[in-house]
Amino acid sequence: MIELDGATVLRGQVKVLHALSLRIAQGQHTALLGPNGCGKSTFIKLITRELYPLALGDGRVPVKVLGQARWQVDRLRSQLGIVTGDLSSNLADMPGLTVEQAVLTGFFASYALPGFREISAEMRARATQTLAMTGASALHGRAYAELSAGETRRVLIARALVNQPQALLLDEPSTGLDLVARQQLVDTMQSLARQGITLVLVTHHVEEIIPEIERVVLLRDGRVLADGSRHELLRDGPLSEAFGGQIQLVEREGRLTASVG
User: Fold this and answer.
1) Is the dihedral of CA 197, 160, 98, 115 positive or negative?
2) What is the value of pTM for the model shown?
3) What is the CATH number that goes with domain 2-79+165-260?
């Protein structure tokens, strides 16, 4: 699904990814975990084509998505849904946009509904269905710009789901959420994973890594520090090395909590 083969990225004169190689297969729930500045955001921007890797001298292609070396993100939306915080800000800037309309824009990969396109009954039914899938049915007629951070996350996931993608790429989905909203997000991710939607979670919050995510990739300084099972890597030692400080991890009934000290 996602292939990085020696991907190197420069931002200005700073190398933010160092010949990163990584493969994520369809059906393999995966968490990319690491501190701020480890390369997580750069990984996302490679997939969304906001950043490009350096060309490789031997002719290899450093990044492929769904087997393609060249892709348009909007044309992949029926296979890979992408949920980022930047998207939320852009939708909130659209005057008068309702939650239903925000979800419907997912069909057109736009921030507003195109005036020349008909919104079919099937599209509206699908928007209603995906809002229900994410526990956001009650928000249907609300103004998008008035939603809380937790509510916008659920609406953005519903927006990505309208195209019935095989996988979701979630970028720091719990940023800014309170405890209750974070738990609602975790419940939503578990429900989607159980429905067979592949989750690729990019985060620095261990608490977001649901039990269904079996593979963990630890990133540090633009490199893969470790790549293995949650049993191997979601432990005090590997996490302390990745985050550069003493991490203590507690797991209760599959739910993780990390603390420093």
Assistant:
1) negative
2) 0.90
3) 3.40.50.300
